[in-house]
# Entry
Amino acid sequence: DFQMTQSPSSLSASVGDRVTITCRASRDISTSLAWYQQKSGKVPDLLIYQASTLQSGVPSRFSGSGSGTHFTLTISSLQPEDVAFYYCQNYDNAPLTFGGGTKVEI
Amino acid sequence: EVQLLESGGGLVQPGGSLRLSCAASGFIFNSYTMGWVRQAPGKGLEWVSDINQSGGRTFYADSVRGRFTISRDNSRNTLDLQMTSLRAEDTAVYYCAKARLTGSSYDSWGQGTLVTVSS
# Structure
């Protein structure tokens, strides 16, 4: 079965810290990867698509990189409003699997 | 402004059926792939199903294939999810989502509708 493995499952960092979340695909998905942010009680928001393209309106402290099977989401300077769950998603081929999520806390 | 409004959620007994609908506005509906994503209480996101612009191609997660049917009515700008043989593990908030491009990420999401499968 195709899987997206996200790590860590949770992290706690200080305001201003650099934070990195990793997503690994069980097969090559090229750059067909998206990152979403979901704040408590809210709907998911698209942050990054095509592995590294920032969605319109997303702060530049967010960045994505990677291709093939290894991807990263980086927050260059963590802000209080970044407290949320973060999910990666494959959209190369069905199933459009999500990673298990990463909880980011201050 | 893109708006997606889900309806049809509720309490249903195991083995029962339910039909979810999503009313779309603010974009050219028949130009975009649409999908359903669910989230069980306190859990992560789970992709459920996708349908292409014409409705001629559909895709399903293994967990729902054979029980759920996705469809769309481009004349009414609506997306549906017919759910049958419901199980307790189908309990979740179901989100309607618009793809950014064909075979792409989701750039707009509805507020979700809660489906509870319980006796």
Q: What stands out?
A: The CA atoms of residues 38 and 59 of chain A lie 15 Å apart. Strands of chain A lie at 4-7, 10-12, 19-25, 33-38, 45-49, 53-54, 62-67, 70-75, 84-90, 102-105. The radius of gyration of chain A is 13 Å. Chain A has a mean pLDDT of 97.
